[in-house]
Amino acid sequence: MRRPRRRPAASPLKYFGSEVRLERERLGWTRKELGKEAHCGYSLVAKIESGERVPGLDFARTCDRVFPHANGRFERLWPLALRLAFPPWFRRYAELEWKATVVRMFHPQLLPGLVQTPDYARAILEGADVVHVDGFPRGFLLAEPDDVAKASEAYDLLTAMACSPDESADLIDSIAKDHYS
Q1: How far apart (Å, rounded) are the C-alpha atoms in residues 170 and 175?
Q2: Which of 78, 79, 104, 169 is the most buried (most CB within 10 A)?
Q3: Between 170 and 105, whose confidence is greater?
Q4: Distance of CA 128 to the CA centre of its chain
C-alpha cells in the first residue's frame, strides 16, 4: 500500500509537522524518543507530524530545546500553526479563549443537552449557513427552522423534573413520535 503524498505547504499546521519530522529524522530519533522528551506519546508526535493535531506551546519549546539547529523556530511557528488550525468562523473564539483567564460559559450557537446530534455537530463544524429562528430566545442556530422551533419547545419539557424516570421516558417517546415521525 502506498503512503499518502506529504504536502507540507498545504497549511501552517502541516508545515510545522513536517519541520518536526525533518529535525527528528536528522537526529536519528524515533517518535517514541521525541515523545519521551516532550512528555507525550509517540502517536501524538505522529499526529503532529502529519498535521492532524495542534501542538502545544510546551511541545514547540521542547522541539527548540532538543533539536540543535532549531534556534527558536518552533516557538515562532507555533502561533501561526495554531491560529490557522481552526475553521475560519471559530478563530475569533479561540483567540478570545487564549486571552481569557476564566471561561464561565462557552457554547455560542449551540443547542445544549439532549437535542444535539452528530449531524448537528457536523453542520456547526463545517460552517453551514446560519438561519434565524423567530421567537427562539437563544439566538441563531443551524438546522431547519421548524424542527429547531419544535425541539426548542420540547427541550423545556425534556429537562423538567416534574415526572418520574419512567414518565419522562414515555414523554420523550411521545414527543419523538409527534414531531419526528
Answers
A1: 9
A2: 78
A3: 170
A4: 16
Question: Is 90 exceeded by the pLDDT of residue 19?
Answer: yes
Q: Please give the tally of structural domains in the chain.
A: 2
Instruction: Tell me whether residue 102 is in a domain.
Output: no
What are the backbone dihedrals phi and psi of residue 141, each rounded to the nearest 5 degrees, phi first?
-140, 165
Q: CA–CA separation, 69 vs 8, rounded Å? A: 19
Residue 55, domain CATH = 1.10.260.40
Find the domain containing 42 and state its range: 8-85
The stretches of the chain forming alpha helices (DSSP H) are: 12-27, 31-38, 42-50, 57-66, 73-83, 91-99, 118-126, 145-159, 165-180
Give me 35's grid cell.
515523545
CB 171 within 8 A of CB 158: yes
**79 and 123 share one domain:** no
pTM of the model: 0.50
